[in-house]
UniProtKB/TrEMBL annotation:
It comes from Streptomyces boetiae. This is SCP2 sterol-binding domain-containing protein. InterPro entries: SCP2_sterol-bd_dom (IPR003033), SCP2_sterol-bd_dom_sf (IPR036527). It comes from the Bacteria. Residues 52-147 form the SCP2 domain. Coiled coil: none annotated.
Length: 152
């Protein structure tokens, strides 16, 4: 069983997406709340997860898609990243740009980690309001096929 100490000690450069997914799967809501209270660890974990989107992107599935996707992880503070899909590549930037995203996905720390680690169904999260989608819902529903999402 994983805990926050496992996550704090994690060398993201050496852990596979599947190993990370297993760690997240073992975390309770309470443990993720503890993670959120440690702002440096929270920032590090979210940053590492979002950066991996570039490595896990499947350009052959995205085709000619051009879109700006904003990810908001609610909490204190709200953490925002944007992923731009263009020319068969994904570019990740931290923060909110002035550009209008095609879709914005918002979740709390726990639901965000479950989503990006393959430990939750995005459809179920959306239907239960744990994942909020603002903008192109069709694009949001297609996102999982554009990324190699790990399974625990």
């Amino acid at each position: 069983m994983a805990d926050i100490a496992d996550l704090a000690a994690l060398d993201f450069a050496s852990v596979t997406p599947q190993e990370f997914a297993r760690i997240v799967k073992g975390l309770s809501k309470k443990e993720v709340s503890q993670l959120a209270e440690d702002s440096a660890l929270r920032t590090r974990v979210i940053s590492e997860v979002v950066k991996r989107m570039q490595e896990q992107f499947k350009p052959e599935k995205a085709g000619s898609l051009k879109a700006l996707i904003r990810w908001e992880v609610s909490g204190d503070p709200v953490v925002v990243y944007e992923t731009e899909v263009k020319d068969g590549k994904v570019t990740v930037t931290e923060g909110r740009s002035e550009r209008e995203p095609r879709v914005t996905l918002t979740a709390n720390d726990y639901e965000f980690l479950r989503l990006v680690s393959g430990n939750a169904s995005p459809v179920t999260q959306f239907m239960t309001r744990k994942l909020k989608v603002n903008g192109d819902i069709g694009l949001a529903s297609a996102l999982p096929k554009f990324f190699d999402i790990p399974k625990a």
